[in-house]
Design goal:
Chain lengths: ~325, ~280
């Protein structure tokens, strides 16, 4: 890399045609090339291949033996000899729509709770009190614990016979007998939500806190002198001013929630009540040897997320690149 | 100054809320440590405070089949991934933060978009690539695939850090005839060390915790990383889940992370806010 740059410089000083700005621009492209190349190979190319596979009948054991079958993995119309028409493919697969529903429900509920709780924790951390540093350190712990580890810790705490959570609830008189949190179809989603909210609220709180700290203190001072009620201060001052930071935090969390895999795979394996789009796609790709079918499902997930992001940026006018205020 | 009753109630409510936050945050980790120190059937008695101090579960894990090997795998994979990402990111971030060129904003948003990718969307294509390169079931499969989230993240955070460096330093260097490469290595690098440590640490945590790729691209127990090893840790029989050793293994891999995070608290919070990433 060094030689290229020095050559550019020699060329510039020798011919005198290259201005400083042009020379810098040339160096910039050389600097960017390795990164762009790396991202092309690990992101763009695999994505294109996944989309391609979704239009073939490729199998896991024979990656190069697939044939182009068009949209059959998505939707396929088949006329039986009896004249009856049968539809097949992901788009009419109830298991897929169940996964879509689970993913959307999980994302909306978890992000909603995390935003509200995160904002509450951030407001606490924004106040000045003794032991604030300690509280901030404490809330970093759930964030620092690996997802798989937190899934296992909670699986043990939520255990139906020996779990401490059931023990607490029984002692407090809320329930009579232990609940099989992760195994029961009625509570599996609740269990997943509890763990996710526990693990991710700190992240939301830190992002909200950063937003809160940008608000000048004298605004609050002025409101206090004017005798404005604290709730009104929150709704009319804090919330509008923290909104941009909150919008960015919500979109990051939402994107993360929509692709959730590890927590659900470990906490509630094979539960119909929690299986998300990522889980069902991987199941088909790897475990069930329906490689092309799984590719179609992961392509759909990608499309859904891409549409969601475009809508959000367009409607919310979120400036993600941070270029506007430069 | 005398406190009114209303003030006192407010103060109590506030601190009660603070205590609730701290207890909820810490309790699961505390309980995992407590469980990991129990031996034999003591594990099936529920205690809120430690009663046993047995290191039997830790011995089981450390002498067990492949756990130490998994830890080594994880350190190697995460370390290599982070060094690679930092190396590629430093020069790229200089270009993105300091040089004006057409399409810069678009490129930045694209990079951010890649970090927000649903990883499952590239799984099939990456599986093919990994097979094609002949690195299936080796640590290199993870190093390659983890680049998809460590590289965009490091580029993004370092770009925001570099934007804030004063322009005067760079101008002085340019007047002295320094090339962009010299500016990066001699002028910016010394200023960037704190940012590099933070970014590297956050990327390391991300790589250390990754599960989907590690699960898919390894088959033999000796090649597993820690999250996969813990997720698939099984007992003598199918029905019997070895909770003691699982908790011990969890504590072993979490303690260094928690320690690092607490030591670098301030820097991590700054890095997180700049990068907006979840571990």
């Amino acid at each position: 890399m060094r030689s290229d740059i020095t050559r550019a410089k020699h060329h510039g000083s020798g011919g005198g045609e290259l201005s400083l700005e042009a020379q810098r621009r040339r160096a910039a492209f050389l600097f960017l090339a390795p990164m762009i190349l790396a991202l092309f190979f690990v992101a763009a190319w695999p994505l294109l291949r996944t989309i391609y596979f979704s239009f073939t009948n490729t199998s896991l054991t024979n990656l190069y033996g697939g044939e182009w079958i068009g949209f059959d993995n998505y939707l396929q119309r088949r006329e039986l000899s009896s004249g009856r028409v049968v539809w097949r493919g992901t788009l009419v697969d109830p298991a897929w729509w169940n996964a879509v529903w689970n993913t959307v429900w999980f994302s909306v509920v978890s992000v909603l709770f995390e935003t509200v709780l995160g904002l509450m924790v951030a407001l606490v951390l924004n106040a000045e009190f003794k032991g604030r540093g300690l509280v901030r350190a404490a809330i970093l712990i759930p964030w620092a614990i690996p997802t798989i580890v937190s899934a296992k810790m909670w699986a043990w705490m939520l255990n139906d016979q020996f779990g401490i959570l059931n023990d607490m609830l029984i002692k407090l008189g809320f329930i009579e007998r232990g609940i099989a949190w992760t195994a029961s179809i009625d509570t599996a989603m609740t269990a997943v939500l509890i763990v996710d909210i526990w693990k991710t609220t700190p992240f939301m709180a830190l992002l909200c806190l950063a937003g809160l700290q940008m608000i000048p203190r004298d605004i609050y001072e002025a409101a206090r002198i004017d005798g404005v009620h604290p709730f009104k201060v929150f709704w009319k001052i804090t919330l509008p001013l923290v909104r941009p930071a909150l919008m960015v935090a919500v979109i990051f969390r939402m994107l993360d929630a929509l692709r959730v895999f590890d927590l659900i795979y470990v906490l509630t394996p094979n539960s119909k009540a929690t299986k998300t789009m990522s889980v069902i796609s991987r199941e088909n790709l790897i475990d069930f040897d329906k490689f092309a079918y799984g590719s179609a499902q992961s392509t759909l997930l990608f499309a859904i997320i891409a549409i969601f992001v475009s809508l959000y940026i367009w409607l919310g006018k979120v400036d993600l690149s941070g270029e506007a205020n430069r | 100054m005398k406190r009114s009753i209303a003030d006192w109630i407010k103060w109590t409510a506030f601190y009660a809320f603070v205590v609730v936050i701290v207890v909820i945050s810490i309790f699961p980790f505390y309980y995992a440590i407590l469980t990991s120190l129990k031996s034999g059937t003591a594990i099936f008695r529920i205690n809120y405070f430690p009663v046993d101090f047995s290191f039997q579960n830790y011995a089981t894990v450390m002498t067990g089949r492949n756990f130490v090997r998994s830890v080594i795998n994880s350190v190697l994979v995460a370390g290599t991934t982070v060094l690679l990402a930092l190396f590629l990111a430093v020069t790229a971030s200089y270009a993105l933060s300091r040089v004006r060129f057409r399409g810069r904003a678009l490129l930045l948003v694209t990079i951010l978009g890649v970090s927000m990718f649903p990883q499952i969307a590239v799984l099939a294509g990456l599986f093919e690539l990994v097979r094609f390169l002949g690195i299936y079931n080796t640590p290199w499969a993870m190093v390659l695939s983890y680049t998809i989230f460590t590289l965009p993240f490091t580029v993004w955070v370092l770009t925001t850090f570099m934007r804030d460096l004063p322009i005067e330093i760079e101008e002085a260097a340019i007047i002295d005839g320094a090339t962009p490469w010299v500016i990066i290595t001699k002028v910016f690098m010394p200023l960037l060390w704190p940012a590099l440590v933070t970014t590297g640490l956050l990327a390391f945590i991300g790589a250390w915790n990754e599960f989907l790729f590690a699960l898919t691209f390894t088959i033999s127990e000796t090649q597993r990383t820690v999250p996969v090893a813990i997720a698939l840790l099984s007992g003598a029989s199918e029905q019997e889940i070895p909770w003691g050793p699982i908790m011990a293994a969890s504590v072993i891999v979490t303690v260094p992370l928690v320690a690092l995070v607490l030591i670098f608290q301030r820097k991590i919070v700054a890095g997180l806010t700049a990068g907006g990433v979840k571990g």
